[in-house]
Structure formats: C-alpha cells, structure tokens
Design brief:
heterodimer, A: mainly alpha, MetI-like fold, 2 domains, 0% strand, B: Rossmann fold, 6-stranded mixed beta sheet, 35% strand
C-alpha cells in the first residue's frame, strides 16, 4: 500500500510541476499578447516564470535561514530579547570557542593536504602495478561508510583497556604485543586531534584517488612520450608535466575536502564529543543550540563563524568556475 | 653511409605478429617515408626506432650503435607526433626549451637555439603564447621547433600533417621538404598518404601487414611496382586492375583476354607462364588513352565524369571495379557516352595469381 501511495505522490508531484510550467507559460503568452505589441519571444517576463520555483526554494531554504541566524545571534538564548554583540563578546572570551577555532585550523591544514597528497600518490602508483585495481578498490571502500559508522570502527581501533587486561583495540593490542604500554589514545590532548583526523583522511582519500585516477587517464600518452624523448626522467615528468596537467583537479579536490572539513561534526561527536581538547566549531554549535535547554543566540553566533570560514573558499571556487567558463 | 640499420626486427602484441622480420637501411641525411594502410606497422617501427616500444627480436642501430636497450633520450633522436603533444601549460618558448633545460645547457645557448628554430619556422612572434592560443598549423610548427632545438641526428615524424586541413597540409609538405634541405638531418616520416610519400621522400618503404612490400625511390615504385599491393597503393587515382587469362603464349609475346572483347598482345614474355594461367593486368588511369585507335583497345560506357580542370577522370563500367581513364581537362565526353580506350602496352603491368609481378 505504501508503495502505491508513493507512486501516487510522485505522479501528483510531477504533474503539478509540469502543469505549473505549462499553465504559467500559457497565461504569460495570453496576457503579454493582449497588452503588448512586442514579439512574444522577446518577453522579459518569461525567464522569471521558469526561474521562479528555483528562486522560491532558494529563498525559503537558504536566504531565510541565513538572515534568521544572523538575527538570532544578536538576541538572547530564547531569541526574545535583543542583546547587541554580547554573544560575540562571549565567544571571544570562551575557552571552548577558542579551542574550537584552533582545532578547526588544524583540521584545515592537515586533512585536505594529506588527502590530496595520498590520493595523488596512490592513483599514480596504482596504475603501475598489476594489483593496482584491487588496492584502489580497498582504498575506495571507506567512502561507502558514514562518518558515524567510521567513527564506531575507529573507536574500536583506539579502544583502551587498563594495563594487564586483554586489549580489544588493535592499536593497543599491537603495542602491548611488542612490549609497550597501552594508551587511551583519544584522551591525549593535542595528539588526539590527529587521531580523529585519520578517520576523515581514511574516508576521503578514496574520493581523491578515484578522481585523480580519472584525471591521470585523461593525460595524452603522446605528451608523456614527448617528454620522455626530450630526456625527462619519470620524476621530472611527474612534477613538470603531470602535476600541471592535474592542477585544476588538485584545486577541486582540495577545496571540496576543505569545505567538508570546515563542517566536521559527526566524527568529533561520536569519538569524544569535544572532550580532551578536541572540540570543533560544528560540535560546539550543536552543543549550545540543542543541549542543556538550548541557547539560540550563542548557537547562531558559532554557526555564523563556520559560515564565515566557508565563504572565502566558496567565493574563490565560484570565481575559478567563472574563469573556466570564460575560457 | 647508413644512419639507421634495422635487422630482422620483430614485434608481437600478444599473439599478433605485427612486425615480421623487417630489415631496412636508412641512409644518412635521407628523407625516408614509411607508408602503408592503417595497421601495417609503420608507426610501430617508428616508435621502436624512438625507443617508445620494446623490441621483441632483431636490432636497431643508429650511427653504428645498437640502441635496442637505450632509452629514448640517449638515442640522439627527436620525434614529432600527430597530436603535436605540446605541453599545454608551458609557453611556446618553454615547450621548445624543455629538453634543453634538462640537458642543462646554458641560458644563452638555450636562447639562441630556440630563437634560431623559431626563425626557421617563422614563429618568433608566438614564443610567449600558450599552445591553446595557437592554430593547428602553428602548433605543428612548435612541435617541429621542439625537435629542431635539440639538434638530433635523426628526426622521426609520426603522421605529423594528418590533423591539418588540406591547404595547410600542402604548405607544410613543402616546408618540411625545405627544412630537410636546410638541416641536412636524417628524417624518417610515417604516413598513410601516398601523396605525402611521393612528394617528399628520397626513399619510400611500403609496408603491408607488418612486412616490407617494396622500397625504393618514388618513381621507381610508381613505374615498377613489384606486386599488386604496391601498384594499387602508389598513385592516385589508383591503378586499374583487370582480372584476365592468358590466351596464347609465344617466345616473344603473350596475348591475353581483354574484358571479353579482344585479345591483347603484350611484348613482355615470361618463361613460367602457361596458356590458361589467371593473371591480373594493371594499368594506371594516365596510361589509358581515349582514341580511335582500335589496336589494343576496349570499348566501355562512361557512368561518372570527374572534372578537375587540369584533367578529367572518366569511370567506365566493367565487371567489378570501374575502369578509370584520365583524359584532358577540356574533354567533351559526357555520362552515357561509349568510348574507345587504348592501352599503352609499355605501361601495362602483369601480376600473377600470387599478386606478384611477372
């Protein structure tokens, strides 16, 4: 029955959209034809009819939330009383917030760079060995796992049991096997950030690798042969011919992962919930917004800081996109 | 003196024997063209000379050194590719200087070599541009320039003109020939276009299915094709082939059946032919004459007339492929006319059933 309902809804939805375009277009032609002598093809209203649904969706789901978040950031925890910049003053003085900014920077520096580097290296090397396809499949696999799922897996990897007990975490098990002492890895301040980053690198390297593999295939073989005849060594070809060929791909991958990293949330929530100095902005925002009664003012303020971080990269991306279009 | 000596060269791709025991001498400072239909192995041979393709057996020597195991950069060669294969992110100057920088030449030396090459190819004003901003012909010049700057002993060209339009191709053909004179270098050129081969080569090597079918000077191949394949490949439009039988053979001449109309006497006689043997008569369109002469002639109906101005090609109906006749440009012959065509006895080629020349 539910499947039947589903079909009905799809049909209703699709026909509603279709009839909007057909009817609105027809109404436009009728009205414009009646009041204007100009050619119908030149009408300035028609584009707006076709863009309207997209614009409305954009307005409701993007413009409104952003403006509302900005508004809330100047109000108290219930969003009732205007409090000026007090939320921002609080943020500047809050140690958790400062820690989050610092950690986000750390993530930003380490994760995109490592993913891009590993992805490119693996994609290049995998093409040269017969078991490359198998290796690539293995490395791509984590892409299919959600961040929370991956965190659960890695929680087992880092799992700690007191000395003398059987270690069920593989990392500690290996260390103990070779005679070392077990550690509660995710509770070691500063370094634990890197242990969390490993999870995202583990997931995102697959993406980078797959895209680089495709891009590498697109490099014409004759160009590489020309370089070989010119006397270039394989290393030189890689740095002087292949890397410039891939520069666009590198930028795309790097920015994609950078934006993802700015929004990092699930991993931190699932692994440490921001304890032991691993707090990040998204998790802090979630904390203030929805926990302990909720503080929409402070939550919104933190959300705006995340947006502030993403915007420059988005602008840069859009510009680059525009430049590519113009070429 | 031979610059490149190829001895018993073999190449397999899996079970495909693509180069079959090829031996070839390429003279120093010659312009040698490897020509043949696609898949004949001409590019593979060139790539083996360049060192881009492994050799399964046999040897290649350049300048008396066996180069089988040398990497491309140590063979003293330069190659120009069909796709130009320029480095897209480098300027024209850097494209041409890339190899020289690797050789660690001084800045002045690199400068002078690049400017010299640019001058020869008339691309001086393009040096600061990127390949993307160049036309196909200009890119090809840059690719050739990149080869020139390295001052190699041997230039290898892999169908360099195939991506250019017809007019530009003719122009570049002339320029390449000129360049060969200027540089005094050995050039090996691969093409599937027999016109390019005929116009530029000192020596043409015709390849067919991984074997050398015939090699020699352009006119030698044109006048004395050793087999049906070379006869058909060299010359445009291609040579007419007429399947026929020997009617009578004497010590001085043989007479053959000419498309059922008449017997035809050939002066050339061969000892190992018998009456009744199946043979193929080959004659080029330009050696057939529209005339009233009834000796050694054949009557046929015209079904296509191609007027080129300088000449006219008439296509005559016959069993199998049409008979093509070249006549003068102002010919009044129309489609549907029946004309009498005289065969020039001295220009007839007779091939046996194994497709070899008799």
């Amino acid at each position: 029955m539910t499947f039947f309902n589903f079909i009905v809804y799809v049909v209703i939805g699709v026909s509603a959209v279709l009839s909007y375009f057909v009817l609105a277009n027809w109404a436009h032609d009728y009205l414009v034809g009646k009041f204007s002598k100009k050619n119908l093809q030149d009408s300035i209203f028609r584009p707006w009819i076709f863009m309207a649904p997209a614009l409305i969706i954009l307005l409701v789901y993007l413009i409104y939330p952003v403006s509302e978040t900005i508004r809330l950031s100047f109000f108290d925890n219930y969003g009732r009383e205007f409090t000026g910049v007090s939320n921002y003053v609080w943020a500047m003085n809050d140690s958790d917030f400062r820690q989050s900014i610092l950690n986000n920077f750390l993530w930003l520096i380490v994760v995109p760079t490592t993913c891009t580097f590993l992805g490119l290296t693996i994609a290049t090397l995998a093409d040269r060995v017969w078991w490359g396809v198998f290796a690539k499949t293995l490395i791509f696999m984590p892409m299919a796992i959600s961040f929370v799922g991956a965190s659960v897996i890695w929680k087992f990897v880092y799992e700690y049991r007191g000395a003398g007990n059987d270690q069920i975490g593989i990392l500690n098990a290996i260390i103990v096997y070779f005679g070392g002492d077990p550690h509660a890895w995710i509770a070691i301040p500063f370094w634990n950030n890197f242990f969390l980053m490993v999870i995202m690198i583990w997931i995102q390297t697959g993406l980078a690798m797959v895209i680089f593999s495709a891009a590498l295939r697109a490099i014409p073989e004759e160009t590489l042969e020309a370089a070989r005849i010119d006397g270039a060594s394989e290393v030189r070809i890689f740095f002087y011919i292949i890397i410039p060929f891939l520069s666009e791909t590198i930028v795309v991958i790097w920015t994609t992962i950078t934006i993802l990293v700015l929004k990092v949330f699930d991993i931190v929530l699932a692994m440490t919930n921001g304890q032991w100095g691993t707090e990040v902005l998204a998790n802090l925002m979630f904390d203030w917004m929805f926990r302990g009664g909720g503080d929409s003012g402070r939550g919104s303020t933190i959300a705006l800081f995340i947006m502030l971080g993403v915007i420059p990269i988005m602008i840069w991306n859009l510009r680059r996109f525009k430049m590519e279009q113009e070429r | 003196m031979s610059e490149i000596v190829i001895k018993n060269l073999n190449k397999y791709y899996g079970k495909n024997h693509v180069i079959q025991d090829v031996s070839l001498n390429i003279d120093s400072q010659s312009f040698t063209v490897l020509v043949g239909p696609s898949g004949c192995g001409k590019s593979t041979i060139l790539r083996m000379i360049a060192g881009l393709e492994r050799i399964n057996s046999g040897t290649i020597s350049i300048d008396e050194n066996i180069v089988n195991d040398l990497s491309p950069k140590d063979r003293n060669i330069a190659m120009v590719f069909q796709s130009y294969a320029l480095y897209p992110h480098m300027t024209v100057y850097n494209n041409m200087a890339f190899g020289l920088k690797i050789e660690k030449l001084t800045k002045d030396e690199i400068d002078s070599r690049v400017y010299d090459a640019a001058k020869i190819l008339q691309i001086e004003e393009l040096l600061q541009r990127k390949p993307k901003q160049l036309s196909g012909g200009q890119r090809q010049r840059v690719a050739i320039g990149r080869a020139i700057t390295r001052k190699p002993k041997v230039f290898l060209f892999d169908e360099p003109l195939s991506n250019l339009d017809a007019a530009l191709r003719v122009q570049m053909r002339v320029e390449l020939a000129k360049l060969h004179d200027q540089l005094d270098a050995t050039m090996v050129y691969v093409t599937h276009d027999q016109t390019e081969a005929m116009t530029m080569a000192d020596k043409i090597v015709v390849l067919d299915q991984g074997k050398i079918s015939q090699s020699g000077s352009p006119l030698d191949l044109y006048h004395n094709p050793k087999n049906l394949f070379v006869g058909g490949f060299i010359g445009s439009p291609k040579m007419n082939f007429i399947k026929t039988k020997i009617l009578k053979k004497s010590s001085q001449s043989i007479s053959i059946d000419l498309l059922g109309q008449k017997s035809f006497i050939l002066k050339k006689a061969s000892t190992n032919l018998k009456t009744g043997d199946e043979v193929t008569l080959g004659i080029r369109p330009e050696h057939l004459k529209v005339s009233k002469d009834l000796k050694n002639s054949w009557k046929g109906k015209v079904f296509v007339v191609e007027k080129l101005g300088s000449g006219t090609f008439l296509y005559l109906e016959k069993e199998g492929e049409p008979l093509v006749v070249e006549t003068d440009g102002d010919s009044k012959i129309k489609v549907g006319d029946t004309i009498n065509v005289a065969f020039d006895q001295n220009k007839c080629h007779l091939f046996n059933s194994n497709k070899g020349l008799i």
